[in-house]
Each structure stands twice: as C-alpha cells, then as structure tokens.
Amino acid sequence: MNIKKFFTLVFSIVVLISCSKEDSTNPRNGGIDKSANLKALGTSATELLSDVSFTSMNIEIAYVEGNRPADEAINIFRNFLEARTHKPDGIRINLRAVSSSGQAPFTIDEIVQIEKSERTAYNAGDEIAVWIYFADGSNEKDTNEKFVLGSAFRNTSMVIYEKTIKDFANRTGAPSRAIIEAATLNHEFGHLFGLVDLGTTPVSDHEDPNNEGHCVSDNCLMRASIEFGGGVVDVINGSEVPKLDEACRNDLISVGGK
Length: 258
Description:
InterPro entries: MetalloPept_cat_dom_sf. The protein has 258 residues and is of the alpha/beta class. Helix content is 28%, strand content 16%.
C-alpha cells in the first residue's frame, strides 16, 4: 500500500474550541493565576508567535509512563517552533512522566480534568506556557474508519493520543513513530496558532470548505484527511513531515509570526 495514502488519518484532528466552564470560573489555585491559559483555542496566537508580550516559551510535556515521545520527534517539533515564532529568550521543552489515569478511551472532558490535576506550567512574567499530554489511550470517538491522533482544545493545551500513534507505526510499511508524532505535534500547534480561521483571520481564502479549521492545499501541514481509504489526501511522504503552505505562513506572519 502507498505509504502516503496509508497515513491519511494523521490529521484527523478533533478541534474543540470551547473551554471548561469549571476551570474558567476557578482560575486560581495555590496563588497561581491560570486564567490566561484557560481561554478558547486560537486566542493566544499572537502571544505564541510574537515577542511583544512574551519573549520565551515554556512547553510542558506530560507523558504517561511508557509513552514518552521520541527524541527525533521533539527535535523536529522544536525546529518547527523556532522557524515560526519570535522568542529571543528561547523555547524550553520539558518532559516528565506521570501516572496513568486509567480512563482510556478518553473524552475531551476527561482530558480537561487530567490537565487540571497534572499541569504545573502557566504563564509567568514574559514567558508563555503550553501544556501537552501524551495519553496512554485513544479518543472515545474513534471508529474503524476514523481515528484521532491529537486534539488542541484550549489556547495553550493539547493532547496527543500516543497509543493510536503507536498502533499506526507498528503497521507494515508505515512511517516511523517519531515522524507521526512530529507531524501531529506540528499540526496541533498550528491550531494553537489559530490556523485555519480558528482565531487567526486568514489573509487569503484557503480554508477547506468541508473541514473547518483546516487548509485546502493538498500538501499543507494543516490539511485534514478524515476518512481512511477512499477520498484520501497524501499527507506524509516517507520520512518527511509536511510543511505549512504559503497561505498558512502568511496568516501567521499577519499576527506576529515568521
């Protein structure tokens, strides 16, 4: 089977725009103001991309034991962020193991509750914080035809369904786990950047009319391929992670990115 077509589900991403009412009404815990990190998806695009309000970025990756992302994936992810953002004081990526919640398969509300108990990094001074959870299970909405690899669900929050990624990577002829992880991380961060029309107003008309929040360009990182099998879009070419097309790059530049 064609490797590129085999992985058309890499960008079958659930985009959840609303935040948890409980968290947003209880922004403080132990003296920490969390409210700036509990906003709607895409609303912190300029803060993530530019150095106007924040000159550095702190990314906290909490992974369930046994589900640590590959070093190669983290390096590709870091390079993507450095190429798109203005953070003169640097980007820190901190990884730490956490215990399993035992809740898989997950609803997004369960992921929100896990973030509430496990997240430790929040905006501080001129540093913006992002939380990424590598889960030991799948999304509860997965079917035989549709799988979710990751979900950006707040302005600085996302989940990666590592079990699903591992299942794909173990198939004959599949791209490596590291490449799938990197592609998913980059794609989901694109949603944190407000792509496509999820908080960042498009400079040109390039949103896929059939897939809200995704790019219509065939080879773009923000392309969505929902169905496995027929009507597929080639999204991974061997060992290469897709890049943002010109239209998406222009959107990011318009709100302070590179």
